Amino acid sequence: MCSGGFAKCLGISLMPLSIVCVLCNILLFFPGGTVVEKDHITRHAFFLGGILGSGVLMIFPALVFLGLKNNDCCGCCGNESCGRRFAMLSSILFAAVGVLGAGYSVVVSGVAINEGPLCLVNGTEWSYPFSDGDYLSNSTLRKQCTEPKDVVSWHLSLFSVLLVMGLIQMVLCAVQVVNGLLGALCGDCCGCCGGSDGA
Question: Quick count: other Cβ atoms within 10 Å of Cβ 122?
């Protein structure tokens, strides 16, 4: 497979992942699926890991990867002015941006999962009762959160999705780094070049 075609596959894969991450981050502003006051929304939602990190910052590399296969790779073989090798090399920079964006989302999600949600504790005050992640192994502690309803599972589920999606995005962007290097060194479509006469 041409490196440009492979990059396009990666770009197609990144787009739905980005959309899922943005939606998850938006849902975090409605803890437990309910509308609450701004002061009662977990601070981790405002870090916008899913919207900025795995969302907006991931759109740029995805669009670049999709555009690498716009021209016929065989028509560029042996033509130094077509810039296909440079395009593959520049895709590495955008892949790095994607890794950073997804990495930011992964860090925010990991911290959020460890600290737990903001909730009304035993019907008295709003706080973060699970600051050391103990609620992950001891489900009985989750009963301390009385409002919003089911906020612990909501928080844990959405940030877990963001964590997994971010890790997948990082892997896909890292694969494009290798693919971009191969495309820059070997050309976008080495198999086509090998079959041409006098090229």
Answer: 11
Give phi and psi for 135, each to the nearest 5.
-70, -15
Continuous H helices in the chain: 3-27, 57-67, 84-115, 151-186, 190-194
Find the angle CA(128)-CA(145)-CA(47) to the nearest 5 degrees.
Answer: 40
Q: Which residues pair with 125 in a beta bridge?
A: 121
Spatial distance between the Cα atoms of 50 and 146, rounded to a whole number of angstroms: 26
Closest CA relative to residue 40, chosen from 27, 51, 52, 31: 31
What is the distance between the alpha carbons of residues 154 and 164, in angstroms, rounded to a whole number?
A: 16
What is the tens place of the pLDDT at every residue in 60-110? 888 888 877 664 444 444 554 356 666 777 788 889 999 999 999 999 999
CA–CA distance, 97 with 57 (Å, rounded to integer):
7
Nearest to 159 by CA among 19, 21, 7, 5: 21
Distance CA 6, CA 180 (A): 10
Domain residue ranges in the chain: 3-72+79-194
